[in-house]
Amino acid sequence: MGWRLARLLDWLFHHAGIPILKVIGPLFFDRTYLTGRHFEPGGDGWRWVSRSILTQRLLRYNRQVPWPVSPFIVISNPRNLSFHVDDLNNFQTIGCYFQNFAGRITIGRGTYIAPNTGFITANHDFMNPSVHLPGADVTLGEHCWIGMNAVILPGVTLGPHTVVGAGAVVTQSFPEGRVIVAGVPAKVVKRL
Fold first, then answer.
1. Would the CA dihedral through 141, 143, 145, 146 be positive or negative?
2. Is 110 found in the same domain as 152?
3. For 70-109, how does the pLDDT look when each residue is reduced to its tens digit (9 = 90+)?
4. Residue numbers of the domain that contains 58
5. Is 128 exposed, middle or buried (0-12, 13-18, 19+ CB in 10 A)?
6. Are 69 and 52 in contact (CB under 8 A)?
7. Tell me, what's the pLDDT at 112?
8. For this structure, is 124 an active site residue?
9. Same domain for 46 and 86?
10. Of the residues 14, 15, 124, 143, which is catalytic?
11. pLDDT tens track for 28-51
């Protein structure tokens, strides 16, 4: 059954394509997120909508998220996540984990997020791992670049034009921005 529906959606996209998706897309997703640069001619937005109708609404992966999201991403609470619609591409990759049930994650405009990154707003108590500590917001400034396998921990603020190296664990804030941070724990390795 699922493969037949996938073939039907693929056929609709390639033959009837975007006109059909412009009509049915808002039935499945918040219209606000169906705008921006990815929905202009030549953009991938409508392809993401077609895939996400199947994965989010029918197969129920990320079903609570009101915008098209890869089935290989986890978003704890979409109401605690803010970003610009032009940056919808950050939710089309694989392996990203937005753990934000206890705090907000704010992603600045023009920020790029690589696969397998983690954004954590609440951690476990070191003395009792079955207890979560209170949440703290994570904020990324504009035009940041988060490298593959990086982890951003609770309470971290990254200023504009901050680059986080692949595999870094960011435990402290760098609010001034215009830096490259790398390592475990992340430290400034270069000023931009």
1. positive
2. yes
3. 999 999 999 999 999 999 999 999 999 999 999 999 999 9
4. 1-71
5. exposed
6. yes
7. 98
8. yes
9. no
10. 124
11. 999 999 999 999 988 899 889 988
SS (H, E, C) the chain: CHHHHHHHHHHHHHHHCHHHHHHHHHHHCCHHHCCCHHHCCCCCHHHHHHHHHHHHHHCCCCCCCCCCCCCCCEECCHHHEECCHHHHHHHCCCCCEEECCCCCEEECCCCEECCCCEEECCCECCCCCCCECCCCCEEECCCCEECCCCEECCCCEECCCCEECCCCEECCCECCCCEEEECCCCEEEEEC
CA-wise closest residue to 121 among 108, 146, 104, 109: 104
Token couple for 142: 């504009």
Report how far residue 172's alpha carbon sits from residue 75's, in angstroms, rounded to the nearest whole number: 23
Q: How many domains would you assign to the chain? A: 2
Choose among 64, 90, 58: nearest CA to 77.
64
Q: How far is CA 170 from the centre of its chain?
A: 17
With a CB cutoff of 8 Å and minimum separation 6, the contacts of 16 are none
Q: Rounded to 5 degrees, what angle do the CA atoms 180, 135, 86 make?
A: 55
Rounded-to-integer distance, Cα 192 and Cα 178, Å: 5
Identify whether residues 97 and 120 lie together within a single domain. yes
pLDDT greater at residue 4 or residue 16: 4
